[in-house]
Structure formats: structure tokens, C-alpha cells
Amino acid sequence: MTTEDTEIKFDRSLLGVENDIGQYPVTKEMIVKFARSTGEQNPLYYDEDVGSQSGYGSIIAPPTFCNMFVSGVTRPDIKLEFGEVSLFAGQAIEAVSPVRPGDTLFAKTKLKEVYAKTGRSGRMVFQVWETSFANQDGDTVALVQESFVKRNRRPR
Question: pTM of this prediction?
Fold first, then answer.
């Protein structure tokens, strides 16, 4: 953390604190619908015969499947005292283990870091949230990191 980062005013007590955001039962229909809607061509995501003959024993969800559960998630307000404009800055998904029909996913999110950066539009402050998904056995199946940026309005 740089000196510039320590000057950012926000509720630091939220750093690293996990917040339950829900549990999600996974069905075959959900996996197939998601695979088809994202244009996936791999039959492992929708063909029962291919799935049962694979090392997984059934169809599995595409690696980006858990992404559909993070959109619209309400996160705690970190009370960031900076910027007038909020923007989505990016996302990274790490698929750790396969998601199968019949799984129940348990999701938790936490504020991973807050940092400042200066770009062409001036100073910006980034919030990075990490959401972890574990199945009913406690195995982590995916990690989704999302970044949000706040900046001041550009002068006209």
C-alpha cells in the first residue's frame, strides 16, 4: 500500500470481511441454458451422453457459469469519499473445480483491496471485490474478481 493509498478515505473495517450473498441450486437445465446462451460449442456442457462418458461422469457447467450469480449482487457500502462517477472496470474468473447438476453453490464476497491510480482522466480509486463459490462439499469451484472505479467528472 502506497502513501497515496493510505490517504483514501473509506471504511477500512470492511477489508477482507466475507459477506454471504446467497446459495444457488444448480440444475441441468440451468447449465444447458447458460451454455447455449453464451454460444458454447463444447458438448460436455449440454450433451448427457458426452458428459457421462467423460471423466466427470455428467455434463458440467462452462468455466464462466458462476458469473451469472454475481451480477446484481448488493455489496456493503464502503463509504468511499472520492469521485462523482462510478464505473465497472473489469472482471476475472478463475474456474477451480467443475460445477455439476445437483450441486448447491454457496457464495461469499469480500472487499479485497482499494487503491488509487492516475490515468488520462486524472486520479481514480479502484475497489476490488472477490466472490468465492463453494459447493455443498465445501470445495471451492470458482473465484470471481470484479473491479469498480470512481473518478471525478471531466471538466467541460
Answer: 0.89
